[in-house]
Structure to design on (638 residues):
């Protein structure tokens, strides 16, 4: 598919490529591609444009000193001007604020002020904050969890978690080797090798009660790439009956398929599930509007959870 | 014919390297890409120059004009200063960039990428980058991105929408702000047809279009007293009812209290170390569902009848799932 961007986006892109050009170096295109997120073809095109730009076409020293040479780009001199990055625009400040809020960094954290000190006078932070808010992970501890997880990943150190699974009332201690972080449907996950389970596990950030970066180092293991912690391929499937008129949001029921409607107006559906606890809680929360038809162990999990909540 | 972006970069280079204010005519002569005066009318040149200048301003360049109409780049206001990031902040930002770069539900991915790239250049310890950005934005996030651009440009937006009462109609709105809650993005806007402020779930919008007329001219202004934070609501705070609610959070779950309440209402510590949360609700069924979804250890204290309804529902669920299927 051909990429379509407007002139403004293109200008931002070309300026961002320009910022990556360290004077008097030869940079592999592949490395530049990784740093900018642009394809080698797009980079070659924009670098060619830059090589034609100058502050004065009559002065050879005012041209941008770049030459695309096969798989690398030769920056054969100093930038004639624009050697420093432009301050953050309105959209960039908004993106940073949204990202920090999503990561639970409170507005009072000095990091906010540090980053926004680089913003343009045309993008006052208080004006941006009036129009966008993404602080769904509002726990003051959330950013600290992310900081510790990130430190564990960066330094290859074992993390000790107190983790409360969806089916457990009491947090359990886990020792994990962190691999990476994922965000899916506004929930953050830690991907790790769990030393207790001796298997790869995904842990929801909002169920981590406590986390400690230990002194223990670990060697990186080969782990399965995961695009989404909610991937449904290969999972067992539960059969459901949905009350007449009940529509379930696909975002909350990944992989749900409504199969047919019965004479009384109810629908029969199937949904993949990774654990009984998650599915049971989803079903119980609808207070009788969903019945699990099978498998029987999920029906039992639903009954057990309803009894638990009734204090039985 | 030269690439138009080449002309804009040339203009930036001319302005950035000028040591004193320069006239538009000087720029026409010096910046490659502008046709010579003999082959382009002054009016055409002026339009082209203003368009290019506008692009630079939107990219963050601060271009001043003096009393004689000469231009100069305000370098201090244009170029970012050096900043200091601690090692911990750098690692945190790296994690945020890597995670959101791979997340198709983060609508501001492109702008975050350029922001982190700029910060890398002005921080003492660089190496910040966004993830691979390979996956396209999902539909909801693409719509958020479009709406945010409309908010910044103050352009009217229209879309098809079915409201809470089931009424379906095309909405013509002035978009004022967007917020994320529990995985969903919402738009707060003035519904121009009924002159009332409304909150819309962005994933339910269909056939959205932004007024493309006069793109540089705002269609409206956002009221000075508007702040998006005062409009953030929990799932059970949408609906037609309106009542106070008190929810108990058990001592063992108190660590989740601030996350669960998202700043809504008041949160008091109980003698046993639990929390008592006072807030408002607008839907009994959504409140009941929310309490169970966010359990264990979360229960409705007031209104008592909703607590009783939940108990009755739980008994029905248990009975329905005991033994053979119905």
């Amino acid at each position: 598919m051909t990429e379509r961007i407007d002139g403004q986006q293109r200008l931002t892109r070309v300026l961002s490529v320009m910022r990556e050009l360290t004077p008097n170096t030869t940079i592999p295109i592949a490395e530049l591609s990784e740093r900018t997120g642009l394809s080698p073809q797009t980079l070659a095109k924009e670098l060619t444009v830059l090589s034609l730009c100058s502050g004065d076409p009559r002065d050879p020293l005012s041209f941008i000193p770049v030459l695309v040479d096969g798989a690398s780009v030769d920056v054969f001199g100093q930038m004639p001007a624009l050697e420093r990055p432009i301050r953050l625009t309105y959209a960039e400040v908004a993106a940073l604020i949204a990202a920090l809020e999503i990561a639970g960094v409170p507005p009072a954290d000095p990091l906010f002020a540090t980053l926004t000190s680089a913003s343009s006078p045309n993008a006052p932070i208080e004006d941006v904050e009036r129009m966008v808010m993404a602080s769904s992970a509002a726990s003051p501890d959330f950013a600290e969890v992310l900081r510790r997880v990130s430190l564990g990943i960066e330094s290859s150190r074992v993390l000790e978690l107190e983790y409360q699974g969806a089916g457990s009332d009491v947090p359990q201690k886990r020792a994990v080797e962190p691999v990476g972080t994922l965000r899916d449907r506004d929930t953050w996950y830690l991907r790790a090798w769990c030393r207790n389970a001796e298997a790869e596990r995904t842990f929801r950030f909002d169920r981590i009660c406590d986390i400690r970066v230990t002194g223990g180092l670990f060697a990186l293991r080969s782990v399965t790439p995961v695009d989404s912690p909610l991937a449904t391929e290969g999972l067992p499937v539960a059969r459901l009956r949905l009350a007449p008129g009940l529509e379930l949001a696909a975002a909350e029921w990944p992989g749900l398929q409504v199969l047919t409607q019965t004479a009384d107006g109810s629908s029969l559906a199937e949904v993949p599930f990774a654990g009984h606890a998650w599915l049971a809680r989803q079903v119980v929360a609808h207070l009788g509007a969903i019945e699990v038809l099978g498998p029987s162990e999920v029906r039992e999990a639903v009954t057990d959870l309803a009894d638990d909540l009734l204090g039985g | 014919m030269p690439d138009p972006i080449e002309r804009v970069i040339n203009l930036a280079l001319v302005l950035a390297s000028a040591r004193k204010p320069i006239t538009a005519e000087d720029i026409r002569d010096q910046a490659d890409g502008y046709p010579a005066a003999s082959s382009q009318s002054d009016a055409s040149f002026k339009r082209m120059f203003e368009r290019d200048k506008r692009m630079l301003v939107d990219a963050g360049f601060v271009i001043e004009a003096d009393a004689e109409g000469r231009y100069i780049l305000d370098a201090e206001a244009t170029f970012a200063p050096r900043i200091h990031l601690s090692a911990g902040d750098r690692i945190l930002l790296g994690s945020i960039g890597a995670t959101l770069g791979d997340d198709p539900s983060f609508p501001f991915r492109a702008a975050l990428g350029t922001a982190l790239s700029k910060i890398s250049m002005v921080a003492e310890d660089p190496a910040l980058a966004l993830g691979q950005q390979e996956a396209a934005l999902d539909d909801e996030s693409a719509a958020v991105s479009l709406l945010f651009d409309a908010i910044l440009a103050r352009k009217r937006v229209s879309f098809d929408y079915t409201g809470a009462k089931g009424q379906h109609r095309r909405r013509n709105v002035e978009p004022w702000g967007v917020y994320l809650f529990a995985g969903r993005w919402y738009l707060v806007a003035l519904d121009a047809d009924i002159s009332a402020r409304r909150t819309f779930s962005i994933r339910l919008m269909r056939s959205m279009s932004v007024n493309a007329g006069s793109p540089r001219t705002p269609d409206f202004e956002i009221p000075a007293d508007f702040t998006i934070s005062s409009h953030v609501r929990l799932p059970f705070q949408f609906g037609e009812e309106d009542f106070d609610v008190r929810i108990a959070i058990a001592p063992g779950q108190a660590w989740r209290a601030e996350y669960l309440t998202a700043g809504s209402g008041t949160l008091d510590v109980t003698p046993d170390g639990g929390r008592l949360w006072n807030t408002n609700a607008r839907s009994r069924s959504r409140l009941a569902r929310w309490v169970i979804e966010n359990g264990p250890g979360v229960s409705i204290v007031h209104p008592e009848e909703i607590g009783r309804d939940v108990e009755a529902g739980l008994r029905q669920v248990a009975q329905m799932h005991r033994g053979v299927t119905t």
User: Anything to note?
Assistant: Chain B is about 35% helix and 20% strand. The domain at 4-78 of chain B is CATH 1.10.10 (Arc Repressor Mutant, subunit A). The longest strand of chain B covers residues 168-181.
